[in-house]
Each structure stands twice: as structure tokens, then as C-alpha cells.
Amino acid sequence: MTNTLPRVRGAVGGQPKAPERAPVAAPVSRLRALDGLRLIAALMVALYHYGGRSGDISKGWGASPKKLFPATHEWFSYGCLGVQIFFVISGFVICMSGWGRPLRAFFASRVARLYPAYWAALIIITAVFALPWVVYKTVTPSEFVVNLTMLQMPVGVHRVLGVCWTLWAELRFYALFALCVVLPGATRRRVILFCAGWTLAAAITTTAKQPFLDAVFMPEYAPFFIGGMGLYLLHRNRRDLIAWGITGVSWAIGQHYAVAGLWHRPNPAAFSNRQASVIIAIVTIGFLLVGAIALGYFRWANWSWLTVAGALTYPFYLVHEHLGWVVVGILHRKLHIPAPATFALTIAAMLLLAWLMNRYVERWATPMIRRALSRKPTPAVTPR
């Protein structure tokens, strides 16, 4: 690196003193513990989809998971809170990745990250559901084409992936963050104003009861994204009192929405009866774990395999639910493998498929799409 500092005269003999080198900032190390937490959150959701609810998974098992897992189905039902943990992580990561990036680079990174594995999952699941012996319905060709855009929910089209509702929430968060923070340039002040403004807008939206405002400001999910951004500000400066305030307020509102959405009065006929205290505890643990990682308490968890775990999380999350129904049916009903072993083998099969998708789709498609979208268009030459 070329040093541009001027030479200064030394005190002895008037000889020039060697120039002092400017300190070089240490490169930001990857937060590998965050990758591990991502996979844990995805596995929580898988526990919920395979053993913590009824519905389509019952066709795969041939019976309600409540009967197959009488001692654990209640605990599996809390796995849906992995989504809230995902949103906290997303708030942290998007704030980190958008800091110092122009809008074009931010847009390219998000599209390249989301779409390759998503398109692969759409193709795989649509093809499997089209098999004549599979009992689950596939979408029409027209609906499949709309699903490629990831905008099927606002358009009102049947979903290929059940989990894509969370992607629609992520897309709205990205759009808000890009317009309010990335476009003008990310700074601490701008992020704080964005968090405060979104928190207020989400609270007003709750009282306004307007579908458009609900779609834009997402009051039930906003606290988790905002809390993640507050934790990223703490990652930059743990003494930032405003960031502590953002995180605390987001946790308080977030746990309320989690309880309101998942708790109901005990009912013997219900599949599960979640306890409000357990819901609050899981949300709290999610915030605490992301916070501990942000503050550096998990620097020791720097194993390279955690990066692999993080890479598998997104494709695993995409394919595990719908393909899991089919795999469970084959293993349990056709091959008569016991339910606990089927459960474990299905998760292992989905992780293997996720590795294949990462290895043969994401590793080449993601950088290719990112480069293509990051490249500035060549100006047209006007003929004279």
C-alpha cells in the first residue's frame, strides 16, 4: 500500500525519520455463529412442519402428528417461532450488508441471494407434485410463472412453496430499507430515524386497520426486523444507548405480537396449547442470542463448518416443507419405517438436497447474477 504521509525531520542529526504508516483497519470477520443460528432457526421450523401441526403433513404420516408424537408435539408446535428469529437475523444482516453500498450493489446482492435457490425449489417441487402417485396438488402453468416472480401472494396466486409468505415479508423489508437507508446512504442517524419511523408507522397501522398500510408496514413482523437493525448498531458500538432502546422496544412489541398470534385459550380439541410464557421465552432467547453474537460473545464459535451450515439454511428452508410431506409418506407409510426414524431421515434428506442445491445451483448462479446486475449499462452510441 502506498503511504502518502509526509516525511518529518528527526531530532538527531536532522536525518529524515521513517514515515509512520497509517493504521490499517482489520477486515470484518464473518460472524459464523450467526450462520449456525440460522440453521437452528430453520430446523425449528422443520420440527413445526413435520410434528407440530396437522394439515397436509398428516397425509404423509397417515395420521395426525399429535397421535404419533404425543409427548413432543406440543414442543414441536413452538418451532414456528424460528421465523421470528429469522427476521431478527435478517434485520441484522441486511443492515450490515447495506451499509456503505450503493443501491445497485444492494439490489444485485439481494436478487442474487434469493432467486437461484428459489427458482430451483419451484422447479423441483412442481415436478414432484406433478407425479401421478403424489397426492398433493400442483399449480397450473400460469400460476407457476407468477411464482417465479416471488410476488404470488400480493397477486393472489396459489403458492408452490408454503414458506414463501416469509419471503414476501422479506421483500417488503428490503424495499423499505433500500428506499429509506441505502438510497440516500446508510449512516447511524439514518438507520435510527428509519427504525423510529417504522416503529411508529407500524403502531399507527395497527389502530388504522387499513389493508394497504398493513401490507406496507407489517406491524406483526416489523419489530423483529427493527430489533435486528438495533442489534447491528450495537455490533458497531455497544455503548450506543439509542440502539439499546431500539432493541428493547422492538423486543417488547415483538413478544406481544408473537403471543397474540400463537396463543389461544386451552382447548382439548386443539392440536396444541402453547403457553404464553414459553412463547415469550423463545422470542427473548432469539433476541439474546443474536445480541450475544453482535456483541462478540460468540467469537470463539469460529468453526468453518458453521459457514457450510449457513449456506444450507436457505435452500433447506425452501424445500423442507412440501418435499418433506412426500418423503415422510414414502418412508413411513410405504417402507414402514418408525415415525422417529422417519422424522430424522427426512430432515437428513432435506439437508442433503439443500447441499446439492447450494453446490450445483447457488455457487455458480449467485455470483453470475450479482455480476450481471452490478454491471453498469453501456451507454448507447447515437449515430451521427
List the SSEs and their pairings.
Blueprint: E1 8-9, E2 16-17, H1 32-51, H2 57-61, H3 65-68, H4 73-76, H5 82-98, H6 103-129, H7 141-147, H8 152-155, H9 164-182, H10 188-208, H11 211-217, H12 222-236, H13 241-262, H14 276-294, H15 304-334, H16 339-374
Antiparallel strand pairs: 1-2
Helix pairs in contact: 1-5, 1-15, 5-9, 5-12, 5-14, 6-15, 6-16, 10-12, 10-13, 12-13, 12-14, 13-14, 15-16
Brief characterization of the structure:
The chain is an all-alpha fold. It has helices at about 30-50, 55-60, 65-70, 75, 80-100, 105-130, 140-145, 150-155, 165-180, 190-210, 210-215, 220-235, 240-260, 275-295, 305-335, 340-375, and strands at about 10, 15. It has a two-stranded antiparallel ribbon with strand order 1-2.
Structure description:
A two-stranded antiparallel sheet has the order 1-2. The longest helix is centred in the C-terminal third of the chain and has 36 residues, at 339-374. The model is unreliable at 1-28 (pLDDT under 50). It has 16 helices and two strands. β1 (8-9) and β2 form a beta hairpin. It has 384 residues and is mainly alpha-helical. It is globular, with a radius of gyration of 24 Å. α6 crosses α16 (339-374).
Instruction: Give the DSSP E fraction (strand runs of 2 or more residues).
Output: under 5%
What is the overall number of helices? 16
- Report the count of strand segments: 2
Tell me the strand order in the biggest sheet: 1-2
Mean pLDDT: 91
Our Rg estimate from Cα atoms comes to 24 Å
Low-confidence stretches: 1-28
Q: Please summarize the sheet with the most strands.
A: 2 strands, antiparallel
Tell me roughly what share of residues is in helical segments.
Answer: 55-70%
Query: What best-fitting shape do the alpha-carbon axes yield?
Result: globular
Taken in chain order, the helices and strands follow as EEHHHHHHHHHHHHHHHH
